[in-house]
Amino acid sequence: MPRDANGNYTLPAGNPVTPGDVIEDTWANPTMSDIAIALTDSLSRTGKGGMQVQFKNADGTVGGPGIGWINEPTSGWYRKSLNEFWYSVGNEDIFQITKTGIQLAPGKTALGIAPPPITIQDTEFTAATKGQEWFESDSGGLYMRYQNPDLTFSWVLINGATTGNYVPQTDKGIANGVATLDSGTKVPVAQIPAIPVANLPAGVANGVASLDSGGKVPAAQLPTVTASPTMQIFTASGTWTKPAGLRKVKVTVIGGGGGSGGVGATAGTQASAAAGAASGGASIKYIAAASLGATETVTVGAAGTAGASGASTGGTGGTSSFGAHCSATGGAGSNGTGPRGDTFITAANAAPGIGSGGDINLSGRAGQNGAACGVAATGIGGGGGASLFSGGSVSTSVTGTSPGSVGLPYGGGATGAANGQSQAASGGSAGAAGVVIVEEYY
Question: Is the model's pLDDT at 420 over the cut of 80?
Fold first, then answer.
């Protein structure tokens, strides 16, 4: 049995055995396979393989950290609270890490970490290290030693002096100085000079707008406003009409999904199953308005029909198209089997649809294989193929009966039907119809 959310493993049904039980492959082999799967899901102590998901540790405590050491169990990392992590040594907190940074515990020190010294003297000195600071006592300038890419050094003035690359505080917002910035990093209105409007040309390029007799800007001086794109989604065949002012369209067509086949009736040690049907293809195309007619015929591919009751083949999905510009064929239907007493794979050989005529033409996806296991009296209908816009429909495993499930919109293939033991014949399921989407740009 699978492990539960806490990692606990439970033996499959029929275990443990008792004295006198006959060793049979019907319980022994599944039990050994189940144990093998559980062992594979366990982490090797000697480093064979690694975690495939996030490694989650216990929170721990200061004296028993969640990440500790065999020979020193009272030292390591632990989680004290939300977004607060500590490193402890010998059952004592040393430092913490939070979203705001790193902080030492009270009474602890960081050894060997100190800022470079500040040297105070009149003249530049040469025996300086990278990052060292120099206070030039005559001008009051504070410099920092900077190492250039070519490994030479320069002194960079960082504040204090009236010369160099920095503007003194006293020069802000005064005559012949520099402008200050407000809290929004903008120059305040009080520091912006008045603009003599009478000297600006009106109604011409790089000038100002003129106003009509009603105090409004004339339409001729207004910029052209581009309308937001509109979209038409066709889930049934129809006619598209070209709107006024159109520049181009983006058309996406998806063919219909195939239907799944039916399956035959079964006896007590038999099963039957159908494969999943294929999905429709897709085509995407940009078309200039000048290349479009006043109207275009829109065809939406129909869903492939469900296979009849008994071993049968589902119907193929219909072709979707936008005029003669682009099209996409539908996915083929899948086939089902009659009753099987052995283990038999129903191959998913239904061909997916494919797009044509577009800037991008895509193939659909084939469905999954079906499986009939007479020994286990279980039928497994294969999952349907996924289209550009849909996921694949999920496979179905039954000891009873199931017609599968319809394809997912738009253009998805149907899940195959399945029968376990002693079931009447069953039909399949229909695929999903295609779609045509027209995005209109103005």
Answer: yes
List CB contacts of 148: < 8 A, sequence separation 6 or more: 154
C-alpha 267/C-alpha 257 separation (Å) is: 32
Cβ 406 vs Cβ 393: under 8 Å: yes
- What total number of domains does the chain contain? 2
**Torsion on CA atoms 93, 95, 99, 100, rounded to nearest 10:** 130
> pLDDT tens-digit profile of 99-121?
988 899 999 888 766 666 677 66
Provide the residue range defining the domain that includes 403.
228-442
3-state secondary structure of 156: strand
At 284, the amino acid letter reads I
Q: pLDDT tens across 204-262, in order? A: 776 677 778 887 888 777 777 667 889 999 999 999 999 998 999 999 999 999 999 99
Residues 250 and 376 reside in one and the same domain: yes
Judgement on whether residues 239 and 377 belong to the same structural domain of the protein = yes
Please enumerate in sequence order all residues whose Cβ is within 8 A of that of 304, keeping only pairs 6 or more positions apart, or say none. Answer: 256, 257, 258, 259, 277, 314, 315, 316, 317, 318, 330, 331, 332, 333, 407, 413, 414, 430, 431
Shared domain check, 419 and 270 = yes
**pTM score above 0.70:** no
Whether residue 275 is found in the same domain as residue 155: no
- Is residue 250, in this structure, part of any structural domain at all? yes
Q: Return the number of other C-beta atoms located less than 10 Å from residue 215's C-beta.
A: 6
Distance CA(427)–CA(76), nearest Å, equals 63
- Report yes or no on 377 lying in a domain: yes
